[in-house]
Specification:
The chain is mostly beta strands and 609 residues long. The protein is 6% helix and 62% strand.
Length: 609
């Protein structure tokens, strides 16, 4: 793999020196892809406390919570393992989890400058983890300046403090640091229970940037992140599969993520990153009713990525790149090592764009997916866009099974790799002076989709599955009246053809309405109405000592309403309050996991520049 990286780097540096082509840095994605951008201003004014709450307001994006696993996210019917998170261009996930997921509760929204959701398979550029979409998160500010930002908020059974510091060291170097500490007592997800479970979250995010460090016009970005989630959690009733209260069930997840990015604005980006994750579940036999829990999951992710702007002219552009990922899983239960495995995979891609006129862009990309330098799959992507009015896209994707899916207690080492073929068409235009609308129709056809099923439960391939649907967006932005309205609606049919049933936890309907209004220079308020339609779910019942059975259920739809208010006391001081689920709706994000009642928080934000 290293020879591919250095060969690509050498060829493109030489081409740059000989041709002296001036190229423009561009976002590494297809212009025909369907994108949703959430700005820093939107994030700050909403005062959401979790990125999961933020993402759940988007069409055909469903979030599912459960007792043990991190939040699951489903985009356009794809699985949680089909969504890749990139933080400042660096892959962010835990390879020891079932589906290479991210603990969304540990991400610090106060450090985020922009979120970009790219829907549809992006495997050509980002590999198998991007089978259903990519969520890009930017944390470093575009302008280096010295400032301090302090946020304190609290509510019933909740307190949080966040301190952010930016320092402009010189004209070519800067530092950004962010520290967040949260202390909460979460209401039990067991139906009718008033028991609370303590949770302590810590997040430290550090970034250093230096331009012209080694070579003129280059910059180096050093990034480090530490997260720690120490919680007590509930469990499941073995007979019914619903959440049940328990005592002294401790769960801890800690992760250290660091990386180095070297980039030249008009030529390349080269990144190295490593993430180490440690998850533990502990409970004594007396508290657990006779069955003690002592499980440890250690995950390691090492990633190298090279992106090169190989050529650009008025009509043509060619980007190339290569990536290498190394994943490890170490799983121990009751002192016995159950799994100690690793896997490596590589990829090389080329993406070309042709612009025959000012309004038309045609794109094509191809990727070779490798494992230990042996070809395992080819993927491709085609795109055509006209004046950002019409976008057409067709792509394929390929993803290997996770280590957990292969080697856990319910693992299956004979699993086949998942494949997808997606097509999408989008029409977007200005409907009125202050209103824009967009409609997207899409279809995704899966081969060998991996799900857990059977008795005893085991990960297996589904030979054929398909999701088709539609998304509608309306955005009204009246600057004179200081009013912004965003409406989104999604409908999809995620079908498992092997059983002729809906795929689990994919809501058939999603919709949201967000209204923000500035009454004057000091006072603003916002309202969010989020609807999640009915969905089929799957849960497990347990017969001691080892037999898991898979059961099915249908969860009803629900609608929640949130409100938020801001009062700008002076330029450096803002007071805010946010109330979620103000109607007290009881709902289940997953089977037997109940959320009930409103949650109210209030706080202040103090900024020094």
């Amino acid at each position: 793999m290293k020879y591919i990286l250095f060969t690509l780097l050498f060829v493109c540096l030489k081409a740059q020196a000989i041709q002296e082509i001036e190229v423009v840095v561009a976002d590494q994605s297809f212009s025909s892809s369907n994108k949703v951008v959430i700005t820093e201003k939107e994030i700050k004014k909403s005062h959401v406390n979790s990125i999961a709450t933020l993402l759940s307001t988007e069409a055909n994006v469903a979030i599912s919570s459960s007792n043990f696993t991190p939040n699951s996210i489903y985009i356009r019917g794809g699985d949680t393992s089909h969504v890749l998170f990139l933080i400042d261009g660096i892959p962010f996930y835990d390879p020891s989890t079932i589906q290479r997921t991210v603990n969304l509760s540990t991400l610090n929204l106060r450090s985020i400058k922009k979120i970009e959701i790219i829907k549809g398979s992006q495997s050509v550029l980002y590999g198998g983890q991007a089978l259903a979409g990519v969520i890009k998160i930017e944390t470093f500010p575009t302008d280096i300046k010295t400032s301090t930002d302090f946020t304190l908020q609290g509510g019933e059974r909740f307190g949080e403090v966040n301190l952010a510091q930016q320092i402009k060291l010189t004209n070519v170097q800067g530092f950004a640091g962010n520290i967040k500490a949260t202390d909460a007592h979460n209401i039990s997800p067991a139906k009718g229970s008033s028991k609370t479970y303590p949770q302590r979250l810590t997040n430290v995010d550090l970034t250093y940037i230096h331009r012209d460090l080694f070579l003129p016009e280059y910059e180096v970005l050093l990034k480090g992140q530490y997260t720690d989630d120490q919680s007590q959690i509930s469990t499941y009733d073995n007979g019914t599969g619903v959440s049940a209260d328990t005592e002294n069930f401790n769960a801890q997840t800690s992760a250290v993520n660091y990386g180095v990015v070297l980039r030249k604005k008009d030529l390349l980006s080269l990144s190295f990153s490593q993430q180490e994750t440690d998850r533990k579940y502990e409970q004594d036999a007396i508290s657990a009713g006779g069955f003690a829990t002592d499980e440890t999951y250690d995950g390691l992710l090492q990633a190298i990525r090279l992106d090169v702007k190989a050529f650009e002219s008025a009509q043509f552009k060619i980007d190339t790149g290569a990536s290498f990922n190394h994943e490890e899983l170490y799983y121990k239960a009751s002192g016995v090592v159950k799994a100690d495995q690793f896997q490596e995979y590589e990829g090389v891609f080329v993406k070309a764009a042709y612009k025959p006129s000012e309004k038309v862009v045609a794109e094509a990309g191809v990727r070779q997916e490798l494992s230990k330098m042996k070809l395992v799959a080819d993927t491709y992507q085609l795109g055509l866009s006209y004046a950002d009015f019409v976008k057409l896209e067709h792509s394929t994707g390929f993803k290997s099974p996770s280590l957990y899916q292969q080697f856990s207690t319910r693992g299956n080492p004979d699993l086949k790799s998942e494949k997808v073929t997606t097509s999408a068409a989008t029409v977007e235009d200005r409907i009125a002076e202050n209103t824009r609308g967009a409609v997207t129709v899409f279809t995704s056809k899966y081969e060998n989709l991996i799900i857990a099923q059977g008795t005893p439960s085991k990960y297996q391939n589904v030979s054929k599955a398909e999701t088709k649907g539609i998304e509608v967006y309306l955005n009204y932005d009246n600057t004179e009246q200081a009013t912004k309205v965003q409406l989104s609606f999604g409908y999809q049919e995620p079908k498992d053809f092997s059983t002729n049933t809906w795929l689990v936890r994919r809501a058939l309907r999603t919709a949201s309405l967000k209204i923000n209004h500035d009454m004057n220079d000091q006072v603003s308020f916002g309202t969010e109405v989020v609807h999640t339609g009915s969905r089929r779910d799957q849960y497990f019942t347990f017969t001691p000592p080892t037999t898991f059975a898979t059961e099915n259920a249908t969860l009803p739809s629900y609608t929640v309403v949130h409100i938020v208010g801001n009062y700008q006391v002076r330029n450096d001081l803002n007071l805010f309050a946010r109330a979620e689920n103000i109607l007290g709706q009881e709902y289940q994000p997953s089977y037997g996991y109940y959320i009930d009642g409103p949650v109210v928080r209030a706080g202040l934000n103090y900024t020094i520049e």
